């Protein structure tokens, strides 16, 4: 965002939305639909277009709305690139004066939207260590096509509500200890055909913004101090002994000592480094002592 844009919006009551979701679920398209302008690059390709977190204001009656688009953190690359994206997102959030709403974006046509995404939501909870975290969260279902017959759409919406509100109640209890939460859900077609009547989606966005504007802002000074510092490193060690020579009633033993790092990451996932050889020791022992050891062991 340019300094000119910043000055233009300094005296305006702003509402900021943070979009979080899987790659390909339509975060960037939703951001454009909310802002009524093509601010974010989009693609029909399964690979993520958004590589860094960025935000934009809308135009005209959406000039007080600021949408923050993020990469899909479920991308298969993971590792260091994923860490870089998390860190860049956190740094970007730090630069904001406030954020009102965290918008979790799901694809309405995906039968298992929470698959491989629960860890991301848990990490967002850690980034926003506030007692009323879930009061700032809503779900927007994209690709809720406006051409779908109304009765069929109503049935599908009720099915989503019944199933996923229970899932999020469970998730809330695991993350913040909240027993009961009510998460607003909105259903939009953010990429309708030009001649389609998409007034239902527009009304859903109006309701989303009304809800978001009613929230007290999240203090971003508290947001990121937990960040990625919660990664835990455990050193694992093992040793491997083998016979390298038998001669004149003696056995020459070779013992290799190995170690690796086990990293329990901020999102709950576990990664391991390769085993590294730290030292090698040789010992010569009488065969009788080796045999005695195994006899006693048995």
Automatic annotation (TrEMBL):
Domain AIG1-type G, first and last residues per copy: 12-244
GO molecular function ontology, one term from the record: hydrolase activity
Gene Ontology CC annotations of this record: membrane
Main location: membrane
Cofactor: Mg(2+)
Subcellular location: Membrane; Plastid, Chloroplast outer membrane
Keywords from the UniProt entry: Chloroplast, GTP-binding, Hydrolase, Magnesium, Membrane, Metal-binding, Nucleotide-binding, Plastid, Plastid outer membrane, Protein transport, Transmembrane, Transmembrane helix, Transport
Membrane topology: Single-pass membrane protein
GO BP term, pick one: protein transport
PROSITE patterns: G_AIG1
UniProt-listed InterPro entries: G_AIG1, GIMA/IAN/Toc, P-loop_NTPase
SUPFAM superfamilies given in the database record: P-loop containing nucleoside triphosphate hydrolases
Superkingdom: Eukaryota
PANTHER family: GTPASE, IMAP FAMILY MEMBER-RELATED, TRANSLOCASE OF CHLOROPLAST 120, CHLOROPLASTIC-RELATED
Protein name per Swiss-Prot or TrEMBL: AIG1 family protein putative
